[in-house]
Amino acid sequence: METLDGQSRITGVRRITRGQALAFTSTRPIGAVAGTIFDQAVALNIDPAFALAEAILETGWGTSGFARNRHNWYGYQAYFQDPNQAHTFESDEDGIRIPLEDMATHYFSPGGTYYAQGRGCTLAGWAAHWIDGYPAHWQRAMGEILSLMRSAINHPER
Length: 158
Hints:
The protein is mostly helical.
């Protein structure tokens, strides 16, 4: 898995396999839904490494109350001003599929309402819209998660 930066595309690529995603998350609570995240991301042409890293970041590896109690794996409709607004989904599958569909339609598709301020489907473009005013923190945290993922994939015996 190559190093990602702000110009890295997050659609139309697959930086990990399903098996790698499952192995990377197997000892964490998010491991229970890693296969669903991978499958939904692939179906929507979203990089599964990005989709998995974003869910890890948003839920603290699946330990957050939003993930456990609301099936909300992406902090969907949670805002820094009032995180209790976060949406409650009927199931984990809905809590993965609906936010990823929203990303694909409104953020990652040309003509989408929030199509990355002309930056296309890149990490920088995503941060410009999705992350409420905290792109530097988000980019740093995503970089750390993706670095861990890359290390685990490249050196699975560790």
